[in-house]
Amino acid sequence: MIEKKIRVRKEVVRCDICKQPKVFWYLSDFSYGQRLVYFDNNINLALINLLEDEIFLEYADMVKNVLKEYNISCSSDDTNTFIDKSFGAACDTMYGKSVDFSVGQKRCLHCGSTKFEKNMIEPESIIVTELPVVAHEKWKMLDYGQKERIILDELKKVMSVK
Q1: How far apart are the C-alpha atoms of 20 and 18, rounded to whole Å?
Q2: How far is CA 150 from CA 14, 49, 72, 91, in A?
C-alpha cells in the first residue's frame, strides 16, 4: 500500500450531545482534486486525487452508461451524488477495511450526533502525516460485465433497479 506525506489542518471540538472530543481534518484549499476519505468504520483516513485517478473517470462513465442502458432516469446532480457516494465499490480495501466515500466526518464516533460546539477545545494546528493512498488493483482485474454488476448492486442499494 502506497502512503503519501501530506499537510492537513486539525481542529478539535466537543460533541454537543456527549461532550466527547472530535477531530476534524481538512486539506489545504490548494489541494484541488484531492480528497480525504474514510475507512475502518469512519475512523481512519486515506487520500485520493480524483483529478488524477483514471478509475474514478472510468467508474463515472460506466455509471452513466449503465443508467442509459437500463433506462434509469436520473438527474445529473443525482447521478453525480451517486457516483461520489458509491465510488468506494471500485476501491481496494485499506488494511482489510472498505473505503467509504458516502460519509463525511461530521459524525461523533461515540454517540453518532452531527452537532458540535462552535469553539475549538485545542488550538488549530497544521500537521504533516502519512496517509494511505486509495488504490484500485482489484477493480482493474475485473472485466466489463463484473464491473457493471458491481455498479448495478450499488444502484440497487439506493433505487429500485432489477
Answers
A1: 6
A2: 38, 22, 16, 12
